[in-house]
Design goal:
single chain, binds zinc ion, five-stranded mixed sheet, alpha/beta
Length: about 240
């Protein structure tokens, strides 16, 4: 997972750690996020878990805190709904223990996302790219829903069959790849604009992690900068 103390856009290969199930930093330097059990326990619980993202994204947090269900008022929400996005309410405090991590994983189940009510969100997917795109979509969907309610009229949203159809049409695997690649290009433009070179990690992920055949968990961080993630390590995001 990424080292603590850095924003997501600041992550370089040197700021990525290999963390054991008990929280030991096996490779990499810097501080380790205290909420690592979110990631380790979901990775342990989900056979399809290739990536887990946890952030404190403001619109999604606000939506969950308001007690509102996520509604497919836009394309983005159809990635998740139906079924309803699960809500973890055991605590709004940090997830610091493996027991809490297990309970978050149980709340997530086989879904793409779970609201940690009054805390944040967690998304999971077969790859880090898919989990990351899911986190972006969830925040976008919550933002769209907030804007919709701002008109104070009578909102409409897709029923379940239409939402599922939209999911198939809009968020098929190739489209998720395209969204990821767009996010990478946008980050590169931002990096160029600010004169930094902080996108090597992201670029490598975009170009090198599509071959699931090489995916093997827990082999450790590779030394080659050409493939800093190794694509075989369950790389985990952790947002501020
Ligand atoms: Zn958190």
């Amino acid at each position: 997972m990424k080292a603590s103390g850095w924003g997501l856009e600041e992550i370089t290969p040197e700021r990525v750690q290999l963390v054991s199930p008990s929280g030991e930093v096996l490779q990499g330097t810097g501080g380790r996020h205290s909420e690592y059990p979110i990631h380790t326990e979901i990775m342990a619980a989900r056979a399809d878990g290739g990536g887990v993202v946890h952030t404190h994204s403001p619109y999604a947090v606000a939506l969950a805190a308001a007690g509102q269900p996520l509604l497919p008022v836009s394309h983005a929400a159809t990635y998740f709904v139906p079924p309803e996005v699960p809500r973890f309410t055991d605590t709004a405090d940090l997830i610091l223990t493996s027991d809490l991590g297990k309970r978050v994983a149980a709340s997530l189940g086989s879904a793409s996302a779970v609201f940690l009510v009054n805390h944040g969100i967690v998304t999971a997917g077969p790859t880090l790219q898919v989990a990351t795109v899911a986190a972006v979509l969830l925040e976008r969907a919550a933002h769209q829903q907030w804007i919709t309610h701002g008109f104070r009229s009578w909102p409409t949203w897709s029923d379940a069959p239409e939402a599922l159809s939209k999911r198939d049409h809009i968020y098929h695997p190739q489209a998720l790849d395209q969204v990821w690649n767009y996010l990478v290009r946008r980050l590169e433009r931002l990096s160029h604009a600010h004169g930094s070179g902080l996108t090597s990690t992201t670029r490598t992920l975009a170009g090198g992690c599509h071959d699931r055949a090489v995916t093997t968990r827990g082999r450790g961080l590779p030394s080659s900068r050409a493939d800093p993630m190794g694509c075989g390590v369950p790389i985990l995001c952790h947002g501020l």
